[in-house]
Amino acid sequence: MAERIVLNTDIRKGKIDRNIYGHFAEHLGRCIYEGIWVGEDSPIPNTKGIRNDVVEALKEMKIPVLRWPGGCFADEYHWKDGIGPSEERKRMINTHWGGAVENNHFGTHEFMLLCAMLECEPYINGNVGSGTVQEMSEWVEYLTFNGVSPMAELRQKNGQEEAWSVTYFGVGNENWGCGGNMRPEYYADLYRQYQTYVRNYGDNKIHRIACGANADDYNWTEVLMREATRFMDSLTLHYYTLPTSDWANKGAATGYGTDEYFNTLKKALFMDELVTRHSVIMDKYDPEKRVGLIVDEWGTWYDVEPGTNPGFLYQQNTIRDALVAGLTLNIFHKHSDRVRMANIAQTVNVLQAVILTEGEKMLLTPTYHVFNMYKVHQDAELLELTVDSPVYSYEGVEIPEVSASASVNAEGIIHVSLCNLNHAAPAVLPLELRGLAGQSATVSGTTLAGSSIDAHNTFEQPEAVKPQAFNAFKLEGDTLTVELPPMSVTVLEITPKA
């Protein structure tokens, strides 16, 4: 088999939903507090307590949707603790994540302000594990009802006259684990009950999201789809990439060897099988694909940085993480007929973060740069593309060397995203451009590559890994030959000439 990529520029396969590029911010470690929220009295420049530099960076990346307040925290979060004057809000211990004091200064109003500043959709996760039907129902009423009611009056008393627009609402989180250790049959019945009272008020239409499976728990998806398909708009999936598969010893975020580098990428590629097999089950009950699959927690999970609170899940971010992000987003594109949203974990200072902060300092991680490079795919049309990839092997195990995806936007500009997973060698591939009907084209590109297997940005060297112009290509007729650097993520822009 010849190693090549074939791009059919005239075969469109449906829209890549911009919400595939979503993010997740939990009350965990320094994600919300210090990462996003610093308070109005902070010397760090802020708008009503929200960090200006972080907002600016996320807007540049065109963040489309933000999930909050968890995560495991969602199923112990009682929303009324986070409204009203900040000095009167209840304090609590965050028992899930590090035993820190949660002062509830960042609550519903602050989150909705953040989403307005980011110009993104809010995705709110309700409490099924330790909450009540009434509590969840009243939260939706508080958020979205403009009529006469106790919750609407309470919202107005707290300074928000008009109701907000909220589309995405999750009914519980990880209810198979930290959200209650439930069996799928039990959660399916609870979901049917709770979602009944997640009501649509006025013109606001709630997209009801059911808690889906942990990784390859296909029985959970089977039961939920069998028992509750007609009551849901989407079903979730969670999958984290661990180099070692050992939760007690996950592996380091930096300083790792080729074995952990290779294993991480191999495990990230498992996302394709997961989405495929869960989609097959969903197709049985929903052949029209009305119900979306939302991968609302994904990313790498390593041992925390030495000397940090183990419950804060703070880890560095390297070129390896950039490759995990790139190949995973390519997988989501491939399944865009079913995958309608995905939320990487987590936005700032936690797990595979796109931003790290230290006091007033902020840096953009390699993962951030991938999201920023890939934003050109948001709401574009997926193009048919086949990859006959070279093999990348390590100690007798083989994976594809190259991951790729392509789309065309409303202006007819084509973007191709390419990941060379090989840590040691460039990948040279011909890219056949079919369907241009004799049109010539102009080509440009951007690449993100690592100088070492764990290349990363620090507060001392915040631009050690950053995008560069990509020129290692030659266009001859309908064939574009590219030479992808080792350990690199590249985005090509192909503009057909009239």
What does this structure look like?
The protein contains 9 helices and 26 strands. It has helices spanning about 50-60, 110-120, 135-145, 150-155, 185-195, 220-230, 260-285, 320-335, 365-375, and strands at about 5-15, 20-25, 45, 50, 65-70, 90-95, 100, 120-125, 170, 205-215, 235-240, 290-300, 340-345, 355-360, 360-365, 380-390, 390-395, 395-400, 400-410, 415-420, 425-435, 440-450, 470, 475, 480-485, 490-495. Strands 23-22-26-20-19-16-1-21-25-24 form a 10-stranded mixed sheet, covered by helices on one side. Helix 6 (about 220-230) packs parallel to helix 7. The mean pLDDT is about 95.
Which descriptors apply to this entry?
single chain, 498 residues, alpha/beta, ten-stranded mixed beta sheet, 26 strands, 23% helix
Helix/strand class: alpha/beta
Q: In angstroms, what is the radius of gyration?
A: 23 Å
Placed side by side, the strands forming the largest sheet appear as 23-22-26-20-19-16-1-21-25-24
Count of DSSP H/I helices: 9
What are the segments in which pLDDT stays under 50 over at least 5 consecutive residues?
Answer: none
Question: Could you tell me the strand content as a percent range?
Answer: 25-35%
Shape: globular
What is the overall pLDDT average?
96
**How far from one another are the termini?**
34 Å
E-strand count: 26
Largest sheet: 10 strands, mixed
> Helicity level, as a percent range?
10-25%
